[in-house]
Amino acid sequence: MISAVLVFNNNGQPRMTKFYENLETSTQQTLLKQIFDLVAARPASACNFLPLPPLLAPNGNEASPDVPTQIVYRHFATLYFILISTSTESPLALIDFIQVFVEALDRLFENVCELDLIFGFETLHAVLSEMIVGGVVVETSLDKIIEGVRASGAVQSRRKAVNARDAGSLSRGSAFAGIWGR
């Protein structure tokens, strides 16, 4: 089961946080900082799997498969996509899940970048809702995910998003290049 889906930029600012278990806000904030610090400190050549930080790590006596135990992440240009899950989830399947998630965002936003996630947060959450329900992965077919998001009407038109960015005096400089590095 997936316990949380997190998206951070390179500066550690959360761009999306979705927890599928009840945690106090202070615990969530501490966890966000710990996880970003762990992930950001790793070299690009390091493995994308980590044990959970001490804040939520199970005690040595607990062997329950329902307790979150692992972090799986991918770093694309300016964004980190991070999943916290139980040991029942395959880390390789979670890496594939992140890839499908990013590809769906890329198709819906037409070369997604960090600002698209900020101004198009409805689409971001709609994609995640098509893929995960209550911490359980329910869909990984890219075409079905995109079809479901478009059918829900959560896709913000590109023109509307660009106008919103321009109105806020933000530009698409090199710092906000698409997450695929194009």
TrEMBL record:
Main location group: membrane
Domain of life: Eukaryota
Any single Gene Ontology cellular-component annotation: endomembrane system
InterPro entries per record: AP_complex_ssu (IPR016635), AP_mu_sigma_su (IPR022775), Clathrin_sm-chain_CS (IPR000804), Longin-like_dom_sf (IPR011012)
Family according to the record: Belongs to the adaptor complexes small subunit family.
Intracellular or extracellular location(s): Endomembrane system
An individual GO BP term: intracellular protein transport
Protein name from the UniProt record: AP complex subunit sigma
Organism: Cyphellophora attinorum
